[in-house]
Design brief:
The longest helix has 19 residues. Helix 2 packs parallel to helix 9 and helix 6 packs parallel to helix 7. The protein has 2 domains: 273 residues, Alpha/Beta hydrolase fold, catalytic domain (Rossmann fold); 92 residues, Serine Threonine Protein Phosphatase 5, Tetratricopeptide repeat (Alpha Horseshoe), CATH 1.25.40. The chain has 393 residues and is of the alpha/beta class.
Amino acid sequence: MKHWTILLVFISVSAFGQFIETEKINSTVLDQERNLWVYTPWQYGEYPDKKLEVIYVFDAQSREYFDVVHSTVQFLGGEEFAFIVVGIESPFIREKNQSRNTDFLPKAIDKETIEKYGDFSGGADRFLSFVKTEVVPFIDDKYRTLPERVAVGHSNGGTFISYSLMNEPGLFDAYIAISPNYAYDKGQLAKRLTALNPDTLKKEKFVFISNANENTGTDERWAGWSEYHRKVIEILKNPKFKSKIHVESMDFSATENHGTSFPIGAFYGLKSFIDHQFRTGENVTSYYDRLARQNLIALNPENVNMMAYECFWNDKPKDAIVVINWAIEKFQDEHNLYDSRGEFYEKIGELDQAKKSFQKAIEVLSRSKGKMDKEAYADKMEYYKGNVQRVSK
């Protein structure tokens, strides 16, 4: 059993039920004290039994990285899902040869790279062990979490989370790498990635990679960035990773430089992940079925209906139909689910199917006549009949 010395430093004033806490971990792996920032959304306090997915943000010693991510997910989150956001600091301590590069970069092989970074690199394996054996268990122990973890990293932070995919593939499920430094050590990560065995990936990974205008000029700092960026994406899209890695990429070179790429990259990276995970029919049903089998969530007519509407409200009515059919299979006596399906079919112009669903809602409702309040029953029946009439014109 691991032991941590944890100090809760402060809890910020709540804003609409949201909290930001700071924690300190006396790490035995790093032989250092490290700070964490932890954001919990209003749903965490509102629903005391609800468990949430966790996003881990690297480079949180610069508070704006953490703030961008937890602010972004408030705009992107839905009714049935929200995120705990954890920011992990990588401080600069000269006397300990400690820096963000120490944490994020694996041991260099190329002589020129070794000379460039000196003692401030090469600690990625140790830092990865710290995250895996100390940070994640602490967060899982103290907070109500689901075992779905997202990593967000910029520049060398993006290098690190990509490194973690190869060396600890079970640690994260999604990777948002914003302007990652794949040119490090003459493309070391691209070479490592080529040797990655797909069988080590036990379930599909989501990978988002973006770039800014690195390597578009003559600045030697960005030498090789575009070349290895393209190479990594090509490797990840190799057929051997089909069904193992879902890759999305975006190019912000026309408008962004390396320093300005994080906010826009975080937004589109997180949006792409959320759309893929929570607004794509087959992914929604398989994900929540898995959580239910593990007794991590309890499915009920209300939350499965909201899962379908999460797709519908985000202009994905066909995915909503996939989810609502899955919901109906589980709760065949819930008249409201048939009504929702009718609405989804109506949206895509399949009025015959919409009519059948609305009629089914009436049929199922009629079986509940003796169990419902008379006025509520009458109102609901009138509403369903109105739906049938509307699509029958």
